[in-house]
Write a structure and sequence with these properties.
- By secondary structure, the chain is an all-alpha fold.
- It contains 3 helices and no strands.
- The chain has one domain.
- The longest helix has 27 residues.
- The N and C termini lie far apart (73 Å).
């Protein structure tokens, strides 16, 4: 039961001790989550062989972790785009002049 109540009490104590910084921290957190939402991939094209990499950004612990998360999101999008391009050109006859 402590694992469930601990974070709630811990947050309350932390914000009581740092109440001057609470608004600034909440703004930074809101901006961060907006960036995660803006940059995450569309999960509709995922599969068992190509799962979405950390959709909610839960594993981000640092700035370098955020940069790695962005690279993973871009790589997933590239893979998705490449697979889409291959599927859309399949079956078409290309006439060369």
């Amino acid at each position: 039961m402590g694992w469930l109540v601990g974070p709630s009490i811990g947050n309350q104590v932390f914000y009581l001790m740092n109440h001057r910084l609470k608004a600034q921290m909440m703004n930074k957190e809101t901006e961060f989550f907006a960036r995660v939402k803006k940059n995450r991939v569309d999960p509709t094209n995922s599969s068992a062989g190509n799962p979405v990499p950390d959709f909610y950004g839960e594993k981000i612990q640092s700035v370098s972790g955020y940069r790695q998360w962005l690279r993973d999101q871009r790589a997933f999008n590239k893979k998705k785009t490449r697979a889409f391009d291959e599927d859309s050109t399949e079956g078409k006859d290309h006439v060369t002049g």
